[in-house]
Structures are given as C-alpha cells and as structure tokens.
Amino acid sequence: MKVTISKLHSYKNNKKITMITAYDALFAKMFDENVDTILVGDSLNMSFYGESDTVSATLEQMIYHTKAVCNGAKNAYIIADMPFGYYQTPQQALESATKIFKETKADAVKLEGGIEKAETIKLLSDNAIAVVAHIGLMPQFSRSEGGYKVKGKDENSRKKLLEDAKAVEKAGAVLLVVEGVKEDVAKEITESINIPVIGIGAGRYTDGQVLVWSDMLGFFDEFKPKFVRRYLNGAEIVRKSVQNYVDDVQNGEFPKEAEIY
Ligand code: KIV
Q1: How far is CA 96 from the centre of its chain?
Q2: Is 41 near ligand 1, meaning CB less than 6 Å away?
C-alpha cells in the first residue's frame, strides 16, 4: 500500500522510519518491498555520474532519475532532491519544484537549509508542494565549507541546529533530514519538533534512518564513512562475477548448449 505523509507522521514516537536512496527503477523496485521511503538524492551525481561532489547536479538529471524511481517503486513515499543552484530564491525554488512535481510522481522535494530557507519552504508548501528539509552537514555546502564537517560540536552550532529545526517545521516542512550531527544534539532536535526526523550519521535517537544505497550495499568501496554499515559487499561480488564471466567466455565455457538458440 502507498505510504503517505500521514502514515509517516503517525510513526513519530511509535515506529522507526526507513529511508534509502535510489536512482533507477531496477533498484527502486527491490527497495520498495521493504522501506517506507525512497530518496532520489543528488548523491547520484557522485555515485552514478562520478563527480566529486553534488554541486553540478542538474534539475533535468534529478527529474530523469526521479521518473525512473517512480516507475520502479509503487508504494514508498518518494522524495526528489532539489539540486544546487535551482532554489536560490523562493521564486526560483517554486519554479524548480513545480517542474519536478509536474514531470514526476514524487511525493515531496528535499532542500538543504534551515532558517534561511524557511520562506522558501513556506512558499512551496502554500503551493501544494511537500518539502523535506535537510540540516546539519549539508553536502551542497561542501565546497564553500571546505569539506564535510560534522555539526553540533559546540554550543553555537547546537543552538543554530535547534533554531533551524523549529524554523523549518513552522514553515511547513513535512519531514526533516539531519545529517552528520552529534547524537545528543540530533536527539534534542528529534524531541523538540513534531515532524519526523530522519538521521544519517546522527546517532540512534532520530525517528528514522537514511543511507545511500551504494554505500550500504558496498558498491561504493573507495572509503566507508564511520556511520555507514555495509550490508553487502556489492563491489566485490560484481568484480568476481564479471571476472567469472570473462573467464567463461575466454575458456569457451559460455555459452553452453542450454544458452544457444
Ligand atoms: O543526496 C543524498 O543522498 C542525501 C542523503 C545523504 C540524505 O541527501
């Protein structure tokens, strides 16, 4: 059955919400059997497109992949990331998000930012576009901040995160993603707002967890952030399988009788 935002809201304080990223129909269809929500993250610009950060992702790219995910996943609540540079003003955000909503079946869009994006979140919500806010470590800021920095390590950062969380909730955000934040601060955020908080690298006490699929299934194996748990050695399995195929072809073992017309 299709997961709705009211269903996700009813999980707050009752049941942990599971979210995973997906970028295509094939994997989305498999993930859809288990998870509550699928995020078409702009992380696809790195793991699928091979760029070093998310900054160069385009709206067209996000729409293409969101369409594919929507074709594969029929039940999960689907969230499409707003790419860097397409929501710099509230009006630009409304135009970009409207295009995503018109051209895909996404249930919500996600954007990075707290207080400074409150006006944008309100404008989108007032125009029937559900918004997921993303605070803490915001990958789109990695160039300007000179890397990926864990947040909530001092009192100023803690206060700012709490203010951000409250501001985005007040502006109408339906969910909040909190990334790369000290566990005690993520817990405080989760307890101080009514919308579900989904953590990534934010410890145990958020209302749910999200992981990037290629990290958790080990297809990306160049490095493993501390917060990632690998449930599969995907890259190793693929490499071995492809080597087996190459060996079979070269040894005349493939194709066999049963594989010939
Ligand atoms: O783009 C993405 O995959 C994300 C997750 C890291 C939350 O925003």
Answers
A1: 18
A2: yes
**Residue closest to 18 by CA, chosen among 158, 206, 189:** 206
**What is the 240 CA–ligand 1 centroid distance (Å)?**
29
The domains found in the chain, sorted by start residue, are 5-230 (3.20.20.60), 233-261 (no CATH)
Q: 75-90: per-residue pLDDT in tens?
A: 999 999 999 999 999 9
In percent, the amount of the chain with pLDDT more than 70 equals 100
User: Nearest-CA neighbor of 34 among 65, 76, 82?
Assistant: 76
Ligand 1 contact, 42 CB (< 6 A): yes
| Ligand 1 centre distance from Cα of residue 81 (Å) | 8
Nearest CA to ligand 1 atom 1: 41
Query: What is the reported pLDDT for 222?
Result: 87
Which run of H or of E encompasses 38? strand 37-40
| 3-class DSSP state of 97 | helix
Cα–Cα nearest to 112, from 39, 49, 193, 27: 39
User: In 72-222, which ranges are E strands?
Assistant: 77-81, 108-112, 131-136, 175-179, 197-200, 208-211
Q: Is the CB of 177 under 6 A from ligand 1?
A: yes
pLDDT higher than threshold 90 for residue 218: yes
Q: Is 191 a catalytic residue?
A: no
Give the separation between CA 101 and CA 170, rounded to whole angstroms.
22
